[in-house]
Every structure is written in C-alpha cells, then in structure tokens.
What does this fold into?
Amino acid sequence: MYQYWNPEMETLPRRELEAWQLRQLKTMVSYALRTPFYQDRLPKAGIKSEADIKSLEDLKQIPFTTKQDLRVGFPYGFLSIPKDEVIRLHASSGTTGTPTTIYFNREDIRRWTGFVARCIYGTGCNATDVFQNMITYGLFTGGLGFHAGAEEVGMLVIPSGVGNTTRQFKLMQDFGTTVLHATPSFLLHVESKMREEGVSRESIKLKRAFAGAEPYSEDTRRRIEELLHIDVYNSYGLSEMNGPGVAFECQGKDGLHIWEDGYIAEIVNPDTLEPARDGEIGELVLTILCREATPILRYRTRDLSAFYTEPCSCGRTHRRIHRITGRTDDMLIINGVNLFPSQIEEVIMSIKEVGNNYLIVIEKDGMLDRLTVKTEVGPDIFMDDTRPLNALREKIRRTLQSSITINPRVELHESGSLPVSEGKAKRVQDNRPRNV
Ligand code: AMP
Ligand code: ZN
It folds into this structure.
C-alpha cells in the first residue's frame, strides 16, 4: 500500500542511517571550514578539521547557528565554494531588511529535488498526476522547490503561482488538476471562492493537496479535507534548510517524517538549550547534510515541535516530528509570508510625519490573513485635514508594501490616542484563531 521513492534510503536501518549521518556530517564540516563564518567559529570550539568529528555525539561541540549569524554573514559569509560553481540562490526575510541567502551548486539542487520528490511520491502521487503549484515563485523556496520535485516524479506541473482564484479554477478544469500545493489559508480561500463562483466539485478532479509554509491545526486540515473532498498532507521546511523537503507527512498522516539522511534533527529546551526528552516539546535545531555550497550546522529554527517516540506504520525508519505548534520568537506568518514586527517599525519610523506609537493588528478576512498597521501621526498634524492625511496614509502603505511585500491596511490615529501599555510595549495584536 505504501510507496517509497527511494526505498533503500527511506527504510535504512537506524544503525546504517546514523553511520550515513556521521559521514555526511564530516563532509559538511569540511565544507563549513571553507566559509568565513565557520572558519572563525569552529576552531574556537575545538573543531579544526573534519577529523575532529569522530561520532555523532561530537555534534554537540558545534555551537548553534542563528538567523542573526546568517544576517551578519550576508552576503557571502556562509558560501563554501567558488562563486562560478553556484547555480542558484534563494533568500528569506530577516528581522530587518537584510535577507538570509542560501546558495546551491548543481548537486545541491539535485539532492534537494530528490527530497521533495520523495515527499510527493510518498503521498501516493505518480506520473499520471497533474500538479498545480499555487504558491509564490521567486526567491521563496516553495515555488521552485516543489516545481522541481513534482517534475522529478514525472507529474504534469502547472506553475500557476498564487492568487487569482478564477484563473486557478480555469486551469484546474482545463487540465484536470489532481494535486495542489498552497498555504492552508489559501486552500480555504480557494474553497470559499469555489462556492462563491459556483464552481462545482464534479468539474474538478482534485485528489490531494500539500499544505505548508505556515502553522495550522489538525482541525484546519480536517476542514480543508472535508470541504474539498481531498487528502491534505503537511509540508514543513525553511529556506535555511533548502526549503520544502525537510519533513513531510506520509499516508499515515500522523506526524511528519524528517529526512534524516538529509538533516540531523535535535529538539532542545529553548531556555537551557539542553536536549528535550523524547516526546517533549522544544525548539527544533537542524543541521543540513545535503548541501555543499552553504553548509549550516545546528541551526536554531525557532520552531516548536516534538519527536514521536514510536516508529511509523509505513515502515520508514526516519523519525517523525509533531506539526509545528508555534515559534520561540516574534516572527509572524501572514498568508505564508514571514514578517518580524521590527521590519514594520523600521519602515514607519523612517517616515517623519509618523508619531511615536503604533500597533500591528492581524485578523482573518474570510479565509485569508489581513494586516492592519495603526500609527499615530505627529503632534503637528491635524486629523480634520483629510487631503494630507490620505496622502500620508498612501505613502505609509506604499512604503510598507515595497519593503515587506504584504499590502497592509493603514489607519492613522491622533497623536497620543493609541493605547500605551505600562510595561513592555505590546505592539502586536494577533486576533487569528490559535493553532494546536
Ligand atoms: P521560509 O524560510 O520563508 O520558508 O519560512 C520558514 C518558516 O515557515 C519555518 O521556520 C516555520 O516557522 C514556517 N513553516 C513552514 N512550514 C510550516 C508548516 N508546515 N507548519 C508550520 N510552520 C511552517
Ligand atoms: Zn510514515
């Protein structure tokens, strides 16, 4: 009943899997020692060559790497190979304007594609499927990552990108789409638009969808499945670890297999940084084993999860993690786009007419997320003078959109009128339902 893309690797006995990990870790350390960042960091921790890694236990000697490190290392601090050998880069937003950038050589892309193909095929897809990739293409890894993996499986790939539901329905009907990839909120949006536009379920052939890039609950999964009559599989990844293809649900739909021939996964207590007990929730820390051009060791993902303690009934030997329940930092995910409150602050505080206080509000607007930025205006601006206020509102909206790529609603408030908290300023009101 279960189908494996790479049967040997997916069912490799744990002992052999660990031996593989050790070999790959040594290779990664040797590449890391060619990057400016780790050339400085690793010898201080007593690791001067790959020979200093003798067992998987030695991983613990390697210091953690954070998003902040990646930002400081921008643009080439983590590059381990000559630039001519790099064939692609991807980037993700950072806490401020500086993105984090990941480079790939040809083999890195090939390996990444193999992991994504493994995820897709493991849900029962094959070359007869038609795959509509309703996710952002571009620097974000979800578009091209899934695109390549689905082609590798041999599916017919429709690179539809995100948005424009009417066009999406037309593509589904014209080409008989059977599989979708989207954020869970976009899938819900698609379903409500389908009803609104009178698109009948019988006119489309959907069987399954991959949903990821943002947290969602088991209830949301079930709701999408029931409304669209499809199977929904959870897809987890992050650009620092290539993107999609890090962890994925199999047909058991109970936890996500983390591909341990591509990644070493640890779960640590985010305060003490000590390993969490099996089954205990903590921060996921990942070491990439499958990318030479940008090796990243013990990356603190800030994502909260837990290991399953039991092996999966599908026969794969790779451990499963619980769906992500939250983050240890203040990163927000709005319709699949990552956003730190500090990015908004940086933009609005650079506009001189803006006053001192602001508030970020996130709500559900139908099935999608809506971002509203409320800002006070400076004390010398009068609220009854609408023309300049409209111009200011538009200026803030445009500046924010070009910086954060999300189109926010902007509300202007009189100087001193937004609530001031006594302790730590509470700048974010996230009114979306919680994920469990
Ligand atoms: P990016 O680097 O832009 O791909 O964003 C990666 C982040 O998106 C992760 O660190 C998670 O916080 C979030 N994310 C991705 N996939 C999922 C998922 N399936 N469930 C929950 N959060 C996710
Ligand atoms: Zn399984």
In short: Residues 92, 141, 212-215, 234-239, 243, 301, 303, 324, 327, 333, 338 surround adenosine monophosphate (ligand 1) (CB under 6 Å). Residues 331-430 form a domain with the GMP Synthetase; Chain A, domain 3 fold (CATH 3.30.300.30). The mean pLDDT is 94. The chain has two domains: 1-329, 331-430.
